[in-house]
């Protein structure tokens, strides 16, 4: 099978590695990939869904696996609908579960999926009225895709009004912020659950915990995620039963609403006494993928094929007992301003049982350079988080680049 993976982050590096290990894979391409995906794929640079369509046809690609949300929300699955090439991912309509917070909240309400109470507004005037029904802190979310930056937790009315002004008057997110969701603030601990969607049926992978804040002890700004481990210690038998019921409700909703895609549904949970759904994404998570896929014993390509024909079952997925943890090396200044193009050394000197996924790197002659905010995911499997932490942090010392920065508390319980 000839496979094309779309994306250029750590998630895609992990997807490419896992697909390359399948004996069903005969040739692997990644667009646009990074210095890491080059280890198992040929990198190609395709800049639009139309270019991906043309390349796939010209090169007899059998399967396209889409990493990021943007091509899905722009309708890549719909574009390939009448071709023989299969695309693993949500169609445009289903991608609204990620692309519109209002759409996702309406879906959850309609299908009785536990989530934070909310109201949707379209103007400052509506917003001023709506916030009277909430106590502080209040969560304000731009409706559309804002690269993970659209959510603000406001402690005072002044904070709320400032954010309303940014959204509705300064239009910092343009159209994506012209509809806004106001939510009740939920307390608890977060956990991520990635599920295969097989024509509307949900087949869960293993749970994970993502660290979103840039600094230790969850201080500083929200990022795309700077550390992660799998499984989440919160997933005990009781919680698993609760989550099964939630998955049933979501699956029922997907089928009733004609959202029976084949791809991935990422469910973000807030877990306190009960589990509540914070958000949906219609793709693999990053960095969740870097800790979930190394634990998958079964063949990813087979799971994708079965998901596409609607036959995937839980028994098809086999998981290692070992835990997995990753620490992300970032460029100092991320998630704000940072420099790129710094030479990275030492990746090849890490221990044999350490795996370094590339988030944003590029090759320049014989050198590997930093090429973004998140740079490398230093990852290992092991029997306890303490054991893995020791290994990972010891090996991080062997990797150098001028702007290297990382959290020291990933997996510290
Ligand atoms: P979202 O993109 O909706 O997942 O929001 C991004 C982050 O904001 C989440 O991962 C949470 O840390 C936080 N967040 C979102 N909604 C809420 C909520 N209702 N209560 C508390 N925190 C929230
Ligand atoms: N780790 C969060 C995300 O992928 O959106």
UniProtKB/TrEMBL annotation:
Pathway it works in: Purine metabolism; IMP biosynthesis via de novo pathway; N(1)-(5-phospho-D-ribosyl)glycinamide from 5-phospho-alpha-D-ribose 1-diphosphate: step 2/2
GO biological process terms held by the UniProt record: 'de novo' IMP biosynthetic process; purine nucleobase biosynthetic process
Annotated catalysed reactions: 5-phospho-beta-D-ribosylamine + glycine + ATP = N(1)-(5-phospho-beta-D-ribosyl)glycinamide + ADP + phosphate + H(+)
InterPro entries in the cross-refs: ATP-grasp, ATP_grasp_subdomain_1, PreATP-grasp_dom_sf, PRibGlycinamid_synth_ATP-grasp, PRibGlycinamide_synth, PRibGlycinamide_synth_C-dom, PRibGlycinamide_synth_C_sf, PRibGlycinamide_synth_CS
Annotated EC: 6.3.4.13
SMART domains per UniProt: GARS_A (SM01209), GARS_C (SM01210)
Residue span, ATP-grasp domain: 105-309
Cofactors: Mn(2+); Mg(2+)
Family: Belongs to the GARS family.
The name this protein goes by in its record: Phosphoribosylamine--glycine ligase
Organism: Parvimonas micra
Gene encoding the protein: purD
């Amino acid at each position: 099978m000839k496979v094309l993976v779309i994306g250029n982050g750590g998630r895609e590096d992990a997807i490419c590695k896992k697909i390359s290990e399948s004996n069903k894979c005969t040739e692997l391409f990644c667009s646009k990939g990074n210095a890491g995906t080059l280890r198992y794929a040929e990198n190609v640079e395709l800049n639009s869904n139309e270019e991906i369509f043309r390349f796939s046809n010209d090169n007899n690609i059998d399967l396209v696996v889409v990493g990021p949300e943007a091509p899905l929300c722009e309708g890549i699955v719909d574009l390939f609908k009448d071709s023989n090439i299969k695309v693993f991912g949500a169609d445009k309509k289903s991608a609204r579960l990620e692309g519109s917070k209002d759409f996702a909240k309406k879906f959850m309400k309609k299908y009785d999926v536990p989530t934070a109470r909310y109201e949707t507004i379209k103007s400052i005037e509506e917003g001023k009225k709506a916030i009277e029904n909430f106590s502080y802190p209040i969560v304000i979310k731009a409706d559309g895709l804002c690269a993970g930056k659209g959510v603000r937790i406001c402690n005072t009315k002044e904070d709320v009004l400032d954010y309303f002004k940014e959204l509705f008057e300064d239009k910092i997110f343009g159209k994506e912020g012209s509809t806004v969701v106001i939510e009740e603030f939920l307390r608890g601990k977060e956990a991520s659950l990635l599920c295969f969607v097989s024509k509307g049926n949900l087949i869960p992978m293993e749970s994970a915990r993502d660290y979103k804040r840039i600094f230790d002890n969850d201080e500083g700004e929200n990022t795309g995620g700077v550390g992660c481990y799998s499984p989440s210690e919160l997933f005990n038998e009781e919680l698993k039963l609760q989550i099964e019921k939630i998955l049933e409700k979501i699956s029922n909703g997907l089928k009733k609403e004609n959202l029976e895609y084949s791809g991935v549904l990422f469910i973000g949970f807030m877990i306190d006494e009960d589990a509540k759904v914070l958000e949906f994404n219609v793709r693999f998570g990053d960095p969740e993928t870097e800790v979930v896929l190394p634990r998958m014993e079964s063949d990813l390509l087979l799971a994708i094929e079965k998901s596409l024909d609607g036959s995937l079952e839980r028994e098809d997925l086999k998981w290692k007992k070992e835990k997995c943890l990753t620490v992300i090396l970032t460029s100092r200044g991320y998630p704000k301003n940072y420099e790129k193009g710094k030479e990275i050394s030492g990746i090849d000197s890490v221990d044999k049982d350490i795996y370094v996924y590339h988030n944003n790197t590029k090759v320049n002659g014989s050198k590997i350079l930093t090429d973004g905010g998140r740079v490398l995911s230093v990852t290992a499997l092991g029997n306890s988080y303490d054991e893995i932490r020791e290994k990972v942090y010891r090996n991080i010392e062997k990797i150098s680049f001028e702007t290297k920065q990382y959290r020291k508390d990933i997996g510290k319980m």
